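Reproducibility note. Readers wishing to regenerate the assembly model reported in the main text can use the exact inputs given here. Chain order matters: entities are listed in the order in which they were concatenated for prediction.
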Amino acid sequence: MMRSLILQTFTRLLVTLMLLFSLFLLWRGHNLPGGGFIGALVASAAFALHAIAFGVASARSILRYDPRTLMAWGMIFAGAAGLFGLAAGKPYMTGLWLEIHIGESLLKLGTPLIFDIGVFLTVIGMVVAVIFSLEEEEF
Amino acid sequence: MIGEINSNLDIAMLVVFALVSLAILTALYRVFKGPTLGDRVVAVDLLGVLAVGFMALYSLVTGESVYLDAAIALALIAFLGTVAFARYYEIDNRRRKARNPGPGASP
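Running the prediction on these inputs yields the following structure tokens for the assembly.
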């Protein structure tokens, strides 16, 4: 933990921005560069920054859940996304799309998004677990 | 586009490409030469900022907005390495002070 006023002040602003950007990358990942993996890396950079500026205990409390729990839920999400294809009588991991018309615009929700959310949670859990245990090491 | 100079913008982009490339080369020189660790860390941070500038310029030249997103991501992440370097430098310094207390403990 670094007791630096400059770092702590701008960490407060920047962590929000980085988490928003990671959600943006996750959301548009199916059509343009981005996706669950790179979004999760940006999000875990935000948590790492918070851990450096305010200490690991504070970073754990803003993450809310244990990183290992996040990893497990991510695997469950990613695995379950494939089951929708099986339920529809197609091969495992077949992408299925639900099209919702809201007025003029079209919202496409699909199983690849669920898979991407699974990847997102798994990668956040993994990277954050590694960074936190390195930070907690006694020097 | 690269290769055909039609407007003032094309000339400006060529000049800026040359200047940013020169800046990257001089920053690299400082990374290799830099007498202290501090010089090297600041030079690496500068390389990150220059890479962001280069990507923004490239997105202007090609007209692809995708490079701009990469530039945003790099701008958000690049300073993190410098922060981590500063942190380990601090820890190293504290350890050195603990080993031989007294004046002259700074590197």
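We highlight two features of this model. Chain B touches chain A at residues 66, 69-70, 72-73, 76-77, 80, 83-84, 86-87, 90-91, 94-95 (CB under 8 Å). The mean pLDDT of chain B is 86.
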